[in-house]
Amino acid sequence: MLIVRGIMWISVLIVMLICMVKTKRNGMKKKIRALIFVVFLFILFVFMPYSTEAPIENLFITFKTPEQAIHYINAPFSNDKIEDIIVGQDTCMAVFESGQDEELYAGRDMWLRKGEKGYKLISAAGVQKAILSNDIRDEDLDIFFYVDYIKGTKDTYFTGTCETMGKLTLEDNAGTHFTVRLMDSSFLGTDQKRYYCYGCVQDMQDDYQITVNGKTYTAENIKKSPEFP
Of these four, 63, 130, 153, 209, which has the most CB atoms within 10 Å of its CB? Predict the structure, then answer.
């Protein structure tokens, strides 16, 4: 993706220089030249920076599979591999395994929208982000979930970690299938076990509840948090 965006930047600069040289050679009036210059400045400093947030590739690219789209976003700068694809009703997102320490993490800037012909990218502006965590941490249970609602859909993604002394049970009142993976817990220095958990809640309602090891959290516990982008 960065390569495509880089090519776009360079192309705009080249076209801008060519136009400026030609208008000067053709004796075009200074006011018209100034107007053209202002237009190019707008493209260069307003439209192009915005293109890093808005997936303008959607205008001319449709990906046949989620893997193709994710490879386009991630390559060629990452050795991390796709561990799983979380599938929602209208969207999907990837879970990766780090090539360095085999840790799992969610690609929270790689949401995809499903369509009739394939997959399109979703901008960060199209996602409402929040967190769910313990207000008070204890030895029995420590949870931290990113909660990402994809605007214009019924898909809300839960991705994060849970630390507890034994086996982890995770369920909600929406019938969501959560994947729970036991991770390396040695660095904790305790007997706690660390799990990576993820799933997509479809059509989450105001009475939503999620229960982790018998402790229930409601939709009111899910908080918007700008410090966790």
Answer: 63
Tens digits of residue pLDDT in 163-221:
888 889 999 999 999 999 988 877 666 778 889 999 999 999 999 999 999 889 998 88
| Residue 161, number of CB atoms within 10 A of its CB | 19
Q: For 41-87, what is each residue's pLDDT tens digit?
A: 666 666 655 555 567 778 788 999 999 988 887 765 567 788 899 99
Q: Which amino acid is located at 174 in the chain? A: A
Question: Measured between alpha carbons, how far is 155 from 136 in angstroms, rounded to an integer?
Answer: 28
User: Is omega for the bond preceding 76 within 30 degrees of 0, making it cis?
Assistant: yes
Taking CB atoms within 8 Å and a gap of at least 24, the contacts of 79-84 are 84/179, 84/198
CA 179, CA 195: separation in Å to the nearest integer? 10
On the CB side of 31, CA atoms within 13 Å amount to: 0
Closest CA to 221 of 174, 207, 107: 207
How do the domains of the chain map onto residue ranges?
A: 2-52, 66-224
